[in-house]
Design a protein that fits this description.
This protein has one domain. The chain is built from two helices and no strands. The radius of gyration is 21 Å and the shape is rod-shaped. With 89 residues, the protein is mainly α. The two termini are 27 Å apart.
């Protein structure tokens, strides 16, 4: 798999993970509204950890996207150089 495709796959997977964590957070909040006292304590902890994990995934996605253009530019430059080298021969 070339680097550009790998970058796109990583972006897609991180975006999906972030979205899934958002859905999980919403579902946990709904469960919290229906929970008893003991369940609420556990659910609050799960909601907090889910939120923290989503923030980490979103941070990684932001860093990945910031680096994405550099990776794609480098891959495109290499492809052009190889193409030009092939035309020179």
């Amino acid at each position: 798999m070339n680097k550009v495709k790998k970058v796109d796959v990583i972006e897609k997977k991180l975006t999906r993970a972030s979205h899934s964590l958002g859905i999980a957070w919403d579902d946990l909040r709904v469960a919290l509204n229906k929970a008893g006292d003991v369940e609420s304590i556990v659910l609050l902890s799960l909601i907090k950890r889910t939120s923290e994990l989503q923030n980490e995934v979103d941070g990684l996605l932001s860093a990945h996207n910031a680096d994405r253009d550099r990776i794609i530019d480098k891959a495109n430059k290499k492809q052009v150089e190889q193409s030009l080298a092939g035309n020179v021969k």
